[in-house]
Specification:
727 residues; alpha/beta; 7-stranded mixed sheet; 6-stranded parallel sheet; 24 helices; 37% helix
């Protein structure tokens, strides 16, 4: 009978004291042989039980013919047998009371439908016996803690012990990662290859590592997210204290082209991933190399208090590269104080450039590095420093590294990231620098990216926890609009319906009236007041401007009638088959800047909120940001200020600044609308006119699901969180 245990605790898999290797072989070249050899050779501190049908000893360790014959309790079993035998072996492990399985064997979901069915049956066995499972189709687990020394993989070498935990969805890439960690001296606490991850996932490992004192940095290579909203919930919490760095492969925009709205067309799946990682405070690396550059940075003795950085170098070119890289990624080159400049100037010849970057020229000595770095770190305007060394003739890298260590030790609250260039520079000085809490790099650009990661983590950790608060809305009015369209089996709301939907949720809208074809235009115009805008209403046209369906600044009744004639003529010329149901008259909104706000949905991620510069250039410029609903006030403001063209909104060339708070409130309101009505698949507010005081929605369109049970038509438990489910 299986012994009950906490199924949420992954310790039996990550730190077992007894391991059975089922499929252990005395034949070199087999995985069963290699895995057992690694456990023995790397000095696993627990007990290993080889299991094979012949009970043949492996590495002079007594073997057993089945897991049932092992005399002691087994924490974890590694299954390295042909796929046809995995289910039987898993059943035997469950009957034995094994707490965790690592299934190395392949031949499951990755092979197609037959393999997927085999994987489902495997999971049924795992759940029935209360076990946890890593894999199938994985390379195993490493726990490099010297008290355990477990290499339960088929990769021969053990990485150096440190405080980074790594989860990889790719076994082959995992092997390269471990090689990289050894080469660069990056310490690994635990490494997990999750394989197909039908059970233990990245989310499970995040929870396991959250309170593990041996894990200070979490590194992840992922190809997909099984439960993105659960990841957002977990990572948002953990990243406040432990940096999480992710390489997520697959940045394709395929699949978004069929969307009908601007928002849908711009929200490719990778955009949803980016939004989620940003909201969770997760650092995204573009490559494994960049991931390790960032990981090394967190070996620094302190986090920076600001982005103000000092650079010193013995060669002008690297200093310029460093300055360019820092400015490009948002770091600031600090203005050195007069006292700092006066202290440094006597140390170097007249040719030296005593500013930031500080170019000490090629004659700089280790003593010069120590004195200059000490003075720059003492400057109140400097919160981090990047010393760069290019080895000239007669100066040893080791001596410069020691000088950097000595200077940095005088200011332990300010991080220092060193750059030792040249073929021999980094290997000769890295160990000493890393031991002193000074991450070391070969190129200035790497150091800049790494320092930015430190700053971003520090800024995220200082932010208050997100707190989405429900806003006052007219839910009943919005529900009536949506239900009316659903009952009529209409996927698209009319523009007036879309504007009424926004109005119900507190979004300011321009006064509008629909005038059916042939009705009294002047009477409707007088009710609103001139000047007016006239817009085509047609079920056959998505983009009115493309067919000449918009007229602006209509000031008189005569101009109104003339504009209607011109509009109908142009529409018939550009889209002869399109119906002209009528026009919408709308009060003109003068001044302000055109922005776009919207919502769309991505499977598993739920509703995404979009914001950017709007009007006719939105798809051409693509200066937009996305976030996953719900968002709070600070996240909404951050959305508005993070677009590239934010200066257009803050007062470019003397123009008055727009009301950013009003824009942010609109984003919160449409995010709440998306959560309250999962039927709404897409919504565009374009343009949303950003004014000096307030905002006005001028144009809107929405698409809904007409199904009575759409995929996401389950209201969330609260406005802040969806029900937590397993990844």
């Amino acid at each position: 009978m299986a012994t009950p245990h906490d199924s949420t605790d992954l310790t039996p898999l990550l730190a077992p004291r007894t391991i059975a290797v089922i499929g252990a072989s005395s034949r070199p070249g087999t995985m069963g042989h290699q895995i057992l050899e690694n456990l023995v050779r790397c000095g696993f501190k627990g007990t290993v039980y080889p299991v094979n049908p012949a009970a043949t000893p492996v590495f002079a360790v007594r073997a057993y013919s089945s897991i049932a014959q092992v005399p002691d309790a087994v924490d974890m079993a590694m299954i390295v047998v042909p796929k046809e035998h995995v289910l039987d072996v898993a059943e035997e492990c469950g009957a034995k009371g094994v707490k965790g399985l690592i299934v190395i064997s392949a031949g499951f979901r990755e092979l197609g439908e037959e393999g997927a069915q085999r994987e489902l049956r495997l999971m049924e066995i795992v759940r029935r016996h209360g076990m946890r499972m890593i894999g199938p189709n994985c390379m195993g687990v490493i726990n490099a803690d010297p008290s355990l020394s477990m290499n339960a993989t088929f990769v021969p070498a053990m990485p150096p012990f440190g405080h980074s935990a790594f989860v990889s969805q790719s076994g082959a890439l995992g092997m390269s990662v471990l090689d990289y960690a050894r080469e660069y001296g990056i310490g690994i606490s635990q490494f997990v290859s999750v394989g197909n991850k039908p059970d233990v996932s990245g989310n499970d490992l995040l929870v396991q590592w959250e309170n593990d004192p041996a894990v200070r940095v979490i590194l992840m290579y992922l190809e997909n997210f099984g439960n993105p909203r659960r990841f957002l919930e977990i990572a948002s919490r953990i990243s406040k204290s432990k940096p999480i760095i992710v390489v997520k492969s697959g940045r394709s925009h395929a699949g978004a082209r069929a969307a009908t709205s601007h928002t849908g067309a711009l929200a490719a799946d990778d955009v949803a991933v980016d939004a989620m990682l940003t909201q969770a405070g997760v650092l995204r690396a573009a490559s494994i190399e960049e991931l390790f550059d960032m990981a090394m940075a967190f070996g620094a003795r302190a986090l920076p208090r600001s982005r103000r950085t000092a650079v010193l170098t013995n060669a002008g070119g690297p200093g310029i590269l460093a300055a360019d890289a820092m400015e490009g990624c948002g770091l600031l080159l600090a203005e050195l104080g007069r006292d700092t400049v006066d202290a440094i100037r006597p140390l170097f010849p007249a040719e030296a450039s005593i500013r930031n970057p500080l170019d000490m020229i090629a004659s700089a000595t280790p003593r010069g590095y120590e004195a200059a770095l000490t003075a720059m770190l003492a400057d109140p305007a400097v919160d981090a420093a990047v010393p760069i060394f290019v080895p000239p003739f007669g100066v040893r890298q080791e001596d410069v590294a020691q000088a950097i260590v000595t200077a940095a030790a005088r200011h332990p609250s300010k991080p220092v990231l060193a750059v030792l260039m040249g073929r021999e520079g980094l290997p000769l000085g890295r160990a000493e620098l890393h031991e002193a809490g000074i991450p070391a790099y070969i190129f200035p650009e790497s150091a800049a990216r790494a320092l930015l990661a430190l700053n971003r983590h520090a800024e995220w950790a200082a932010r208050p926890a997100r707190n989405p608060v429900a806003l006052d809305v007219d839910h009943a009015a919005a529900e009536a609009i949506v239900n009316r369209a659903m009952q009529a089996r209409r996927e698209k709301l009319t523009e007036l319906e879309a504007m009424d939907l926004l109005r119900a949720y507190g979004v300011p809208t321009a006064e509008s009236r629909f005038v059916p074809a042939g009705d009294d235009l002047p009477a409707a115009a007088r009710a609103i007041g001139f000047p007016l805008a006239m817009k085509l209403v047609s079920a056959d046209v998505s983009h009115k401007t493309d067919v000449g369906g918009v007229r602006l600044d209509i000031a008189t009744e005569a101009g109104l009638l003339r504009s209607y004639e011109e509009l109908t003529r142009d529409v018939r010329a550009h889209a002869p088959a399109a119906s002209i149901d009528g026009v919408m008259l709308q009060g003109m909104v003068h001044g302000g800047r055109e922005t776009i706000a919207g919502i769309t949905r991505r499977a598993a991620f739920g509703p995404l909120i979009m914001f950017g510069l709007g009007g006719i250039f939105v798809e051409a410029m693509q200066d937009v940001v996305f976030r996953i609903a719900p968002i709070d006030a600070s996240q909404a403001t951050e959305m508005v200020t993070s677009i590239r063209g934010v200066r257009v909104l803050t007062g470019l060339r003397g123009a008055p600044p727009c009301d950013l708070e009003a824009i942010a409130t609109v984003l919160r309101r449409i995010g709440q609308l998306a959560l309250d009505f999962p039927q709404i698949q897409e919504l565009d507010v374009n343009p949303l006119m950003a004014l000096e005081h307030g905002v006005v929605a001028v144009d809107a369109r929405a698409r809904i699901s007409t199904s009575t049970h759409p995929a996401e038509n389950q209201r969330p438990m609260s406005n802040d969180r969806l029900p937590a489910v397993a990844d």
